Amino acid sequence: MNPIEKKSKFLSLWRRYGIWIGAAIIVCVLPLIFRSSFSRTMLSQMGIAIIFALSYNMLLGEGGLLSFGHAVFYGLGGFISIHGLKWVSDGVLPIPLELMPLVGGLGAVIFGLFFGWLATERAGTTFALISLGIGELIASSALMLPSFFGGEQGISANRMTGITLTGIKFSKQITVYYLIAFWTLVSAGLMYLLTQTPLGRMANAVRDNPERAPFVGYDTHRVRTFQYTLAAFFAGIAGGLLAVNYEIVTAETIGHIPSANVLMMTYIGGVGHFFGPVLGAVLVTFMQLSLANITHAWLLYFGLLFMGMVLWAPNGLAGLLMLHEPVWKAGLMKRLLPAYILAALPALVIFLGAMLLIEINYHLSLSIDPTAPLKLFKISFSAQSPLPWVVAIGLIIIGFLFFRRAARRVNQSWQEVTSEMKKGASG
Amino acid sequence: MTATALKLIDVNKSFGSSKIINGVTLEVLSGERHAIIGPNGAGKSTLFNLISGFYPVNSGRIELKGRDITNLPSHQINRCGLSRSFQVTNIFPRMSVFENIRCALLWPMGYRYSFWHLCGRLKKVNEKAEELLAKINMADRRDIPAGLLAYADQRALEIGITIAGNADVILLDEPTAGMSKSETGRAVELIHSVTEDKTLIMVEHDMNVVFDLADRISVLVYGEILATDTPGSIRSNAQVQEAYLGKELA
Amino acid sequence: MLEYIVFSIINSLLFGMLLFMLSSGLTLIFSMMGVLNFAHASFFMLGAYFAFQISKFVGFWPALVIAPLIVGVLGALVERYGLRSVHKYGHVAELLFTVGLAYLIEEGVNLIWGRNSVSYKIPAILDFPLFTLFSTDLSAYRMFMLVISAGMFVVLFMVLTRTRVGMIIQAALTHPDGVSALGHNVPGVFMLVFGGGSALAGLAGVIGGNYLITEPSMAAHLGPIVFVVIVVGGMGSLTGAFIASLLLGAIQTFAVGIQVSLSDVLGLFGVSLKPSGLLKDFLRIQISHTGPILPYLFMVLMLILRPKGLMGKRES
Predict the structure, then answer these.
(1) Hey, is A76 helix, strand or coil?
(2) A281 and A389 in one domain?
(3) Do the domain assignments include residue A89?
(4) Where would a tag sit more exposed on chain B, N or C end, judged by fewer CB atoms within 10 A?
């Protein structure tokens, strides 16, 4: 190969695998930059959430199946793995720790096949409700079967079983993080490859046109069932990592809270692009861990964010980013940035006002002593006086008025940019 | 004696109390190009839906190449060798043109529900897809999302997907609906070339297309077959003229 | 034994009627607009909370009228400004909008009334035993509930069959596409149906909230059961929803009194196992404790045996 051929081969390899190599490097380096135990815990949780959200998108984004009960496989994977850990400690099964998530995944597959077959007969709203019912069925039976689900306390085990492939003891969080990171990369890679297989493509086809799919020879029910089963597999792996990470699994893991969480996470990140759920998982995990300590109201903020995405950005964060891809390629980003900055400021003002209102109300109704002063951004004030209310409402109104003007400016900029790109394309 | 590709024997279909298909008996010969014409509401689309398994019949039999396919699920009927296009364009809008065609090849070429093959590496499939793309003259638009194509191109793609899979009995439901004269001409040429060694049954309203393509015509009125004959005989059939053609040509 | 059966029948009827009050509104909205309102049970909860708040000021009877109205108006506004703007993004987005709404309503209730239950009590005037049967009292309030829900059905039936709007709604139930071709003020009818359905849910909340417990998680508890009713009854069928509501009401109510487990049953046949672990748990489950899972078990069975539901018609 002459140098030019070599270079183009290198570039094409780089284009294909570059992202994955880059991701692997970032993932390895992150805990060395963020060294606190809080950060490393958060990074570990992000890894698990990424696998879970990607598996969920196999259903929603790739398959067009909105499931309200995906945590069933997450939780079952977790419970199977934690029992597995106990069996290893008891000397019954010599499974190395590194492969424990696989055990969770394979266990979840069996349930995935059964429930998938039942649930995917119909798509759309009916499927969503059936998934909800199955989720509630399993979650409700958790308390009735304490030997498997552990009742109120859940099941605990020790991950330092002494049986490993690599000889690492896995006593420190950072070692667990690297195990999680490994599985995250492998799972994400596999799930990406799946989208390029006949099953993956037909799952897309069935999503887009379930009427047409039989006339290219495919049984839509089976396509959906297989897609569902594979999604359950990866959710089970995430559950297995959860078991290894926390060394305890409770009935909550199988309930509607993680099911709702993964739905919101994936949707916020964006269902139309492969990396969307990754974004959503990282962002939402970050929000959950950081905000939960700061404010009572973080669930409300989370709900508002989700609602905002549904109303104004249904393609999620990934969709918003990719919207700018052609603009970036045409080199016109600098045209949009000023308008964005102009709009960001009043948006921030509105947010501050809303935040003030929310925090005041939470303080008044949920804190132990509502008469005690509320502290926001180092400013202390009484939640019961009318002044903060006035300030909050004022901020919202003023912010809204300026935002409207700025939004018009953003629209204008976009129109300019779009017409320029059209000219560039035809010129 | 030529083999029979498709046979309907006394097929009946009612929706609630309205009888849409009333004792239809029809035989389409292998390699034939057969058109079904009739006024709106005669039941032509319903007939297609019955043949392709979208609706169950109330009574009667449908045989494909001698095999009973009455009330079989659509995907099984397709695997037996029957393929159809739709009146309202029914492609995979979010996939590229190339991927649309490739999807139609996966099952016939044996890949089934495989999640261990990578579509990009399936040489034979990709080659066949390129061939088909060239056949429908869409090779230059292979990477465009199908939903963004012009209407006539979408119809061409629709036909492409329908014939991709080696089905030898092709049902085309109003393939030239909504097309301009020149687009219709191109569509007819395409249909002619892709159904050369296959059996074609089509529903059409455009009489010029029908007389251009069809070896035989069946006239469906109020769910019953009024007549089945060669185009010339149908043209001069007084009953048909009164019921349908007369109004068209007048 | 007879006492148990008679009271279980009355309680099943009560619970079943409550379920039908909720599932009928949901079915109407779903049939008409193709969107499943995940926040329907949240409107039920709002009805209860509003009634609680209003009755603290002016008593129960005005609350009975005002609270459902407020919820109805809220529903209409949600349709007009929320649902309608998401409509263009498709059914999934609409469903997710209602999911987000349910989430926000629950958080809002948490915020305003706190995380614990509120003491929304039965009005004193109705809090007396109407009559005594087999040494157990039948409270007058339960009679009242039956009367209100029966009255609601009659009104619903009359509206659907005697008024012009009712005709349009009926048409939409079987031929949803035809409605838009009819030239009626379809957006207006949509708003009416959504608001009306929500008001029904609110009314159910007003009379049910003090019968059950009024707490922020009541929507999350009752919601899934209502959805099971819809799936079991057949999506989009009012008759199916009616039968399924009564059926599920009966199953749950009767089960509560059956203190029997599988191992007891096996014991009757002289089989005595000494299992351990999971099997032991399974055999020891008393039917009286299976309340939470029965609706879902029933749904799964229905799916296996008769996927279309009891009277299944419309697919979304």
Answers:
(1) helix
(2) no
(3) yes
(4) N
Global pTM value: 0.90
Q: Which residues contact C24 (CB under 8 A, 6 or more apart)?
A: C153, C156, C200, C238, C241, C242
Identify whether the C-beta of residue A181 lies closer than 8 Å to the C-beta of residue A27: yes
* Chain B nearest C-alpha distance from A305 (Å): 28
256-315 in chain C: CB under 8 A from chain A:
276-278, 280-282, 285, 289-290, 292-293, 295-297, 299-300, 303-304, 307, 315
Q: How far apart are the first and last CA of chain B?
A: 38
β-strands B199-203, B33-37 pairing: parallel
- Is A425 a residue whose pLDDT tops 70? no
Contact B159, B194 (CB under 8 A): yes
Categorize the per-residue pLDDT at C274 as very low, low, confident or very high, splitting at 50, 70 and 90.
low
Phi, psi of B6 (to 5 degrees): -140, 135
H-run or E-run covering B201: strand B199-203
Domain ranges of chain B: 4-249
Domain coverage including residue A117: 19-312
Strands of chain C, DSSP E = 129-133, 136-139
Please indicate, yes or no, whether residues A198 and A292 belong to a single structural domain of this protein: yes
A105 and A218 share one domain: yes
Is A416 within a domain? Answer: yes
Task: Confirm if B91 and B150 have CB atoms less than 8 A apart.
Answer: no
Give me the CATH topology for the region B4-249: Rossmann fold (3.40.50)
Verify whether the Cβ–Cβ distance B99 to A202 is below 8 Å.
Answer: no
Q: Considering the domain boundaries, does residue A4 fall inside one?
A: no
User: CA dist C10 to B32, C133, C206, C208, Å?
Assistant: 69, 12, 20, 15
pLDDT digits (tens, 9 = 90+) for A352-403: 888 888 888 888 777 777 777 777 777 777 777 788 888 888 889 988 898 8
Distance of CA B13 to the CA centre of its chain: 20
**Which residue out of A55, A216, A273 would a mutagenesis test of the B interface target, given it has the greatest number of B Cβ atoms within 10 Å?**
A216
Q: Which chain B residues touch A222 with a CB distance below 8 Å?
A: 113
Say how many C-beta atoms besides its own lie within 10 A of residue A425's C-beta: 9
| Token duo for residue C255 | 């089960």
Residues of C in contact with A145 (CB under 8 A): 278, 281-282, 285
The set of chains that have 3 or more CB pairs under 8 A with B is: A
Q: Looking at the 3D structure of chain A, how many domains does it have?
A: 2
Q: Coil, helix or strand for B218?
A: strand
- The answer on A363 and A278 residing in a single domain is no
The answer to whether residues A76 and A253 touch, using CB atoms and an 8 Å cutoff, is: no
Select from C184, C244, C267, C178 the least CA-distant residue to C22: C244
Residues A173 and A281 placed together within one structural domain of the fold:
yes
From residue A89, how far is each of A84, A94, A95, A261, C282 by CA, in Å? Answer: 9, 9, 10, 32, 26
